[in-house]
């Protein structure tokens, strides 16, 4: 039976959700306050991370925690003034990262992420976006021998357990694989399964265009105007109010602006991240993570995109791009980095949940309301996979993966 459905938020997650529902014959309107794929889904490193079977855990070793607190290293930064309000959620993140609980999360997460390539592949073809994708993997590089050897052992074990293709490259092997590197590194883990996208925002935009061509509608509007009616939901748009029996909240880091007033207390927080493009000559072929310095060098259409690690801060606090400034210096030790392309760095926010699993499913206390947000470090990867899961739940079908680990009910009714 055809359902009328509003999807709020046109990032990778919302666009894929709208598309999955439209492909099932539903009447879908996608609502965003701007064009599709202009926020977090624009600014990421563009990797479809098939290898990411283990979501980012909170460090459990005290030395690692101390390193973060004392702000050594460039992978993590924080705003001291934000810490008091973030502390309860971070404490929960820490507890959820304890070995036994984390093992359960990895089991669930790996069962979801294993579908990321096949789910993207279908859409890439339908949307005519194959020109944006490269299927050559990415490099997780290390400068020092000891961390490299340790990471190589871990990666080999993860690859064995999850059927992933990873090669361990020593310094010479890395130099041969990525000739654009002029600085020497101890070695790299070469993850061969993942795909990379030359313009992440453009990919979302192509998926959105395909959604419209398939009969879907896109409207500009403010999702915070969402209200429950006697029969469903209504939202104000530039073309007037829209009503439907169902609404999906797919607002990434902005989801709490709707879920909080509705009374849901999810343990959500953001890890902010920066990027900026630079000229580089020669341009690297593959994305390279400088793991010990927390930066990714991702070759893109606009230039070499440097992306940073996690910044713990209030979502809308002013930008403090200290990690990016350091990243620039580290990157120029590895490649011939030219001038920046943009006048100022881009700032975005990874939408995180304390138990490291996105929130996908029925809103426990509001009939016709559905959630699909909290994809943290891998929303670009997982958009099509959780869209399919949610569409199957809305259609009351047996879902293609176990939906329970993602059910909003895990945080109470
Ligand atoms: C530096 C960095 C690097 C990353 N690298 C990767 C990577 O390589 N691979 C990967 O898989 N993931 C990566 N990520 C994570 C990934 O980008 C996110 O998980 C993903 O983009 C989240 O998508 P989303 O659709 O949930 O949110 P968004 O893309 O943020 O979409 C939310 C949408 O909601 C809209 N919106 C918000 N408020 C309103 C409102 N009131 N009314 C109407 N519309 C509203 C916004 O305009 C936006 O379009 C990275 C993130 C960062 C920051």
Describe the protein's architecture and organization.
The model has no long low-confidence stretch (mean pLDDT 97). Strands 4, 6, 7, 8, 15, 16, 17, 18, 19, 20 and 21 form an eleven-stranded mixed sheet that branches. Strands 10-2-1-14-23-22 form a six-stranded mixed sheet, covered by helices on one side. It has twelve helices and 23 strands. The longest helix is centred in the middle third of the chain and has 18 residues. The protein has two domains: 165 residues, FAD/NAD(P)-binding domain; 232 residues, D-Amino Acid Oxidase, subunit A, domain 2 (D-Amino Acid Oxidase, Chain A, domain 2, 2-Layer Sandwich), CATH 3.30.9. It starts with a strand and ends in a 19-residue tail after the last helix. With 413 residues, the protein is of the alpha+beta class. Helix 1 runs parallel beside helix 12 and helix 6 packs across helix 12. It is globular, with a radius of gyration of 21 Å. The protein binds flavin-adenine dinucleotide. The site of flavin-adenine dinucleotide has 41 residues, from helix 1, helix 2, strand 15, strand 21 and helix 12.
């Amino acid at each position: 039976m055809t359902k009328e459905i509003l999807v709020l938020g046109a990032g990778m997650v919302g666009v894929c959700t709208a598309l999955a529902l439209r492909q099932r014959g539903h009447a879908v309107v996608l609502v965003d306050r701007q064009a599709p794929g202009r926020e977090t889904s624009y600014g990421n490193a563009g990797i479809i991370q098939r290898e990411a079977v283990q979501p980012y855990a909170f460090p459990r070793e005290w030395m690692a925690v101390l390193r973060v607190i004392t702000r050594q290293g460039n992978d993590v930064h924080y705003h001291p003034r934000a810490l008091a309000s973030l502390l309860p959620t971070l404490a929960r993140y820490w507890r959820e990262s304890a070995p036994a609980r984390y093992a359960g999360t990895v089991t669930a997460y790996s069962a979801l992420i294993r579908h990321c390539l096949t789910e993207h592949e279908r859409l890439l073809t339908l949307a005519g976006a194959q020109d944006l994708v490269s299927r050559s993997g990415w490099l997780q590089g290390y400068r020092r021998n000891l961390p490299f050897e340790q990471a190589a052992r871990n990666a080999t074990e993860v690859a064995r357990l999850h059927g992933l293709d990873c090669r361990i490259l020593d310094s010479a092997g890395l130099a041969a694989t990525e000739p654009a590197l002029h600085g020497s590194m101890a070695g790299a883990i070469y993850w061969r399964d993942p795909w990379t996208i030359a313009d992440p925002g453009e990919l979302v935009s192509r998926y959105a265009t395909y959604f419209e061509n398939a009969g879907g509608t896109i409207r500009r509007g403010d999702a915070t105007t969402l209200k429950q009616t006697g029969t469903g939901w209504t939202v104000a748009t530039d073309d007037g109010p829209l009503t439907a029996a169902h609404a999906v909240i797919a607002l990434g880091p902005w989801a709490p602006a709707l879920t909080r007033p509705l009374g849901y207390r999810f343990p959500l927080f953001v890890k902010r991240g920066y990027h900026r493009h630079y000229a580089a000559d020669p341009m690297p072929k593959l994305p390279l993570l400088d793991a010990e310095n927390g930066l990714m060098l991702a070759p893109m259409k606009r230039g070499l995109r440097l992306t940073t690690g996690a910044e713990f801060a209030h979502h809308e606090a002013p930008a403090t791009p200290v990690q990016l400034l350091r990243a620039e210096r580290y990157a120029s030790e590895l490649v011939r980095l030219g001038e920046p392309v943009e006048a100022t760095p881009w700032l975005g926010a990874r939408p995180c949940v304390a138990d490291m699993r996105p929130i996908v499913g029925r809103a426990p206390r509001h009939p016709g309301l559905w959630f699909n947000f909290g994809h943290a470090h891998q929303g670009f990867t997982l958009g099509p996979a959780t869209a399919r899961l949610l569409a199957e739940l809305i259609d009351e079908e047996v879902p293609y993966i176990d939906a329970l680990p993602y059910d909003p009910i895990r945080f109470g009714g």
